[in-house]
TrEMBL record:
<dbReference type="InterPro" id="IPR000683">
    <property type="entry name" value="Gfo/Idh/MocA-like_OxRdtase_N"/>
</dbReference>
<dbReference type="InterPro" id="IPR051317">
    <property type="entry name" value="Gfo/Idh/MocA_oxidoreduct"/>
</dbReference>
<feature type="region of interest" description="Disordered">
    <location>
        <begin position="1"/>
        <end position="83"/>
    </location>
</feature>
<dbReference type="GO" id="GO:0000166">
    <property type="term" value="F:nucleotide binding"/>
</dbReference>
<feature type="domain" description="GFO/IDH/MocA-like oxidoreductase">
    <location>
        <begin position="218"/>
        <end position="335"/>
    </location>
</feature>
<dbReference type="InterPro" id="IPR036291">
    <property type="entry name" value="NAD(P)-bd_dom_sf"/>
</dbReference>
<dbReference type="Pfam" id="PF01408">
    <property type="entry name" value="GFO_IDH_MocA"/>
</dbReference>
<dbReference type="Pfam" id="PF22725">
    <property type="entry name" value="GFO_IDH_MocA_C3"/>
</dbReference>
<feature type="domain" description="Gfo/Idh/MocA-like oxidoreductase N-terminal">
    <location>
        <begin position="91"/>
        <end position="207"/>
    </location>
</feature>
<feature type="compositionally biased region" description="Pro residues">
    <location>
        <begin position="66"/>
        <end position="79"/>
    </location>
</feature>
<protein>
    <submittedName>
        <fullName>Gfo/Idh/MocA family oxidoreductase</fullName>
    </submittedName>
</protein>
<feature type="compositionally biased region" description="Low complexity">
    <location>
        <begin position="16"/>
        <end position="41"/>
    </location>
</feature>
<dbReference type="InterPro" id="IPR055170">
    <property type="entry name" value="GFO_IDH_MocA-like_dom"/>
</dbReference>
Amino acid sequence: MTTAGSPGTSRRPVDTASSRRTSLSGSTTTPAESTTSSTPSRANSHRCRTSSSSHRCGCWRRSPRPSEPPPPNSPPPPTEGALARMINTPIRVGLIGLGRSGWDLHAAGLAELDQYTIVAVADPDPERRAEARSRFTCATYSEPEALLGDPQVELVVVATPSHTHVPLGLAALDARKHVVVEKPMAQTTADVDTLMAAADKADRIVTCFQNNRFEPIFMAVRKVIDSGRLGELVLIRRSIHRYIRRADWQVLRAFGGGELSNTASHFLDQLLLLLDDGPIELLADLRHTVSAGDAEDHVKLVLKPKTGPLVDLESSCTIATPQNTWFIAGTTGTLASVAGGLHITWYDPATVDEPRLVEGAAPERAYPSPETITWQEETIQTPPGSGLRTLLYYQHLARTLRDGEDLFVTPKSVRRQIDIIERARQRTGLL
């Protein structure tokens, strides 16, 4: 059995030709209902480290090396003046999907950042297209294929139902666009491998919208762990509890629905960042309980790495009395989430002696008295995540696309998450 993060999973054949024809509604493309006047960007030759050491991103910071001739029919390198203008030009975004995530997260977040401008959107709903046209003065399309053919678009954001993420991502890469894919990035590790290969071939970046890596409380948790106050970690528990009987498209397996892929994946991604690389044993319990449809709405995962803490993830629509969203036990301290932040209790191991073992019968049949430990406590307030996560995500991506910084959410890191999801589905039969 392939373990988490293993590159040895067999690759499933993908019909890329048919994938590229995938649309939001299945009908043919239509011309833009409005256009913008900005000029298209040229192909790129700046190197940055993403899923492959040979990847080159899109800011034209230097010409190809003499040993690396440019592709046939490639445009000449830009002048110094053109280079400066391109680096300072906002990233031109084409947004596919204007639903909950597309409009409330991506569009809303991008609109607040000077590093981006939305130049095109695609959605089958004419009212949503009109709303986007009014707000962003952008081109609007009823089909994603037309948006992918728009030379103004530099970065494509795929914010459509889960089962369309891979085919639309592949089509965007085939059109030589950089791509942000909403989570889940894919349903299988084979599909993640296919996206990475397509990105390398197209000389473009592909990444996943794991904006909860910037969740304030998660960043505070990492800071506490890094401080060493908790000692050696023994247990990490992450709980997302509520009682809700869902009845939208995310309760249908045919659309890539389910609590695991669409909700728990955020928190699984966080937890994997707290573990060492290496094999992970998995216990999985996926159940369809109170929601409509046929996908799971209750998820229980237990991850046991070769070294490090046991990880317990519970994401459920079936629990009316929530538990702490975070609970971490270590050899010298404990962390628990509280209203508005985190509470930590710990001690300095240098202030206590090693326990002295006493063999034989217990004097007077008494249990040992608790030793005297000077405990310290702290409550850390954290702001709500809300839109901050999205802003930080896109700011990091802008520095990758324009300044050549390393990609923050690499496909390789997301592949490890998808491996766990895929194995959990295989073991429980909820495919």
